[in-house]
Specification:
By secondary structure, the protein is mainly alpha-helical. The protein contains eight helices and no strands. The protein starts with a helix and ends in a 7-residue tail after the last helix.
């Protein structure tokens, strides 16, 4: 009833603030649920894919084995980046070690960008939602006091009711921001662990591909 009364008594600006908070909440929860599923699957896939790679007898066999586990495409691009570059291109410039470093770096950055997707939205919602709610509260209080001033006589009940309803917007802003901040922090730690695993695999893969006796894909 408080929220319904608040929306019924406020003007277009107050309704716009409430709608914005609702959209921010829906967007952040969609990202939270999606990233929880994605990172859980990606972490398990990277562990199984790298284990399958090192158990394979050759790079060709390793690619086939990794493909069965790497559903998010985080490990296969690293393996593909060790392929020899076309002669005469800038990608083939430099010695083999430099080519491997450049290719693995680009593939690693692409994989990390995929894992980081949605983090900016969670950070933005977590940092701005309280201020959006505060804006709704300030505007609601101003709107309520303006209505009370035009009514003539002022009592505590007349002030407490509208002002209390306006403070709901502050609580709504915090309710939107807290899950986004928690999700951002939790997912940041998970992404860091997966990124560390990928970096370790890329470093070992570079040493393997740079070895003279390594089988080239």
């Amino acid at each position: 009833m408080g929220i319904a009364q608040l929306l019924g008594q406020t003007d277009a600006i107050g309704r716009a603030v409430a709608l914005l908070l609702l959209l921010m909440s829906v967007a952040s929860w969609v990202v939270i649920l999606w990233k929880a599923w994605l990172l859980r699957r990606a972490g398990a896939d990277v562990a199984r894919a790298t284990a399958a790679f090192w158990q394979a007898p050759s790079l060709a066999e390793a690619r086939e084995r990794v493909g069965a586990f790497d559903r998010e495409g985080l490990v296969l691009p690293l393996i593909a980046s060790t392929a020899a570059q076309a002669p005469g291109s800038l990608a083939a410039a430099g010695d083999r070690s430099q080519q491997l470093t450049r290719g693995l770096r680009d593939a690693l950055h692409a994989g990390v960008d995929k894992l980081q997707f949605g983090q900016v939205l969670l950070a933005s919602v977590g940092s701005t939602a309280p201020f959006v709610g505060l804006l709704g509260t300030v505007w609601g209080i101003y709107h309520a006091l303006t209505g009370i001033a035009t009514a003539g006589q002022i009592s505590v009940d007349q002030v407490a009711g509208p002002v209390g309803e306006a403070l709901i917007m502050t609580a709504a802003g915090l309710a939107v921001a807290i899950p986004a901040v928690l999700g951002y922090n939790v997912f940041g730690r998970r992404i860091g662990r997966i990124e560390a695993d990928l970096e370790g695999f890329a470093r070992d893969l570079r040493e393997l591909a740079a070895a003279p006796a390594a089988e080239q894909p």
